[in-house]
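Lab notebook page, bench 4
Experiment: in silico fold of construct C2
Operator: M.H.
Input chain length: 276 residues
Purpose: comparison with the prior construct
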Amino acid sequence: MYVEGTVVADGNHAVPKGVAVEELNSGKKGLQEKCPPDLKELLEKKGLIAVYDDLVKSVVDASRTRNVFGRWRDQEFVSIIDQFRDLFASKGVKVALCKRESGSGVRRWLEFIDVDIAGMYVPQYDVANLSGQVIKTMYATLKFPNGVGVEELRQMGGRKRLKEKIPVQVEEIIARKGLMDAYDALILAIVNEGAGKHSKMWNIEKLKEIVHSHQPNFAVKGVEVFVSHKQEYVSHGQYGGHHEYFRWVEFVDRELQPNYHPQRDADSKSEKCVIS
């Protein structure tokens, strides 16, 4: 059977049973030379070996899928996958090019989803399903899929920004689910109670408590709310350095993203832990 809980992206992400993975860290040569055993098993079971071979050949032969520095061009890669989607789908398999960026680099992989086993699964790093929202840190650009709205908690003027403007993607989810009253109450609590009394800086423990207490109001409409954070050390060379903190709230529409998990969930990762 296919590997359950296959781990990718240097151990930072796992896919469920029914999803076969092919990592793209070795470029065209690696893609051409070897097919992972669990993927081969899926392809043989579905009668898709020939289709897969044609897909790989198209990617390898196309000069536009890699730039002059040897890095994958995501949209060009996706355009080739699009040519084969119907052939895979006719045998009950979905294909997605996934990408995860962190301070330690960019990791890409292909996911082949057996609809009979994982039909409800939605790959959260699918390049073709990104919403355009980003959180920019010092060393990374975190991207988010459709169905996830992100509200950044900036250090400078963050409380004022929260009261003045709601991000488009957040507003779309909140309005569609009829959650504007619940959202307004959550934001008011974050503004009034989410920062330290003296420092006026965001307090992650207070933010977690606030979100947890308001969570049931969103859950009844199929939306889950998370507090996320990332800490990065900025070196000043011989003069030492300092830490930069990035915090945000994620609103997840479980209808569109049933298995999504935050990239930097404050409940599962310590604030002092610097993630890759």
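Observations: The beta strands are 6-8, 13-15, 19-23, 93-102, 105-114, 130-136, 141-145, 148-153, 223-235, 241-253. The chain has two domains: 6-121, 144-253.
Next step: discuss at group meeting.
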